[in-house]
Amino acid sequence: MIDLKNVNFYTLLLLGGFLLSSHSLRSQAQIQFTGLENAKGKLMIRVRGEEGKVVKELVLPLENLEPVLELNLPPAKYAIAVFHDENDNDELDRQFTGFPAEAYGFSNNVRGTFGPPELADQLVHLQSNSRIKISLE
Question: From the CB of residue 55, how many other CB atoms can be counted at a distance below 10 Å?
């Protein structure tokens, strides 16, 4: 027979255990962006998993030349791409040659030759208290 006085206690105990275990499945990573020439506009950030699927898209308004993003995701390998949207038009502007006119960067600070670098080259392992620097050029 179930003692109803203790049901709430056991429910809270189970819920608390679930919340603690689910919190440990996430990692808090700090992403620092460097190389900005001005603090106009915003940073447009896309995070992809190791299979290439977009897991998060973020907009970081700029207030200084070395912004830091707190990223809370499950520990795994991710590729991070970012560009400086100086004119707030929500797109990466290009020169007449097709090359980007706004600063951009990728995790591991890799660069592609004629387009973005390979996904495998961008992957970084995010785990608890990871700190990553991405240089925008």
Answer: 14
- What would the two tokens of residue 7 be? 């049901």
The arrangement of secondary structure in 26-135, i.e. its CATH architecture, is Sandwich (2.60)
Which sequence spans correspond to the domains of the chain? 26-135
Matching residue, tokens 């977009």: 54
Query: pLDDT by residue (tens digit) across 5-55?
Result: 554 544 444 444 444 444 456 778 999 999 999 999 999 999 999 999 999
CB atoms within 10 A of CB 122: 22
What pTM was estimated for this model as a whole?
0.80
- Residue 1: its pLDDT value, please? 52
Task: Tell me the C-alpha distance between 20 and 110, whole Å.
Answer: 36
Cα 107 to Cα 133: distance, rounded to the nearest angstrom = 8
Q: Which two tokens stand for residue 11?
A: 């429910």
Structure tokens, 6: 């203790």
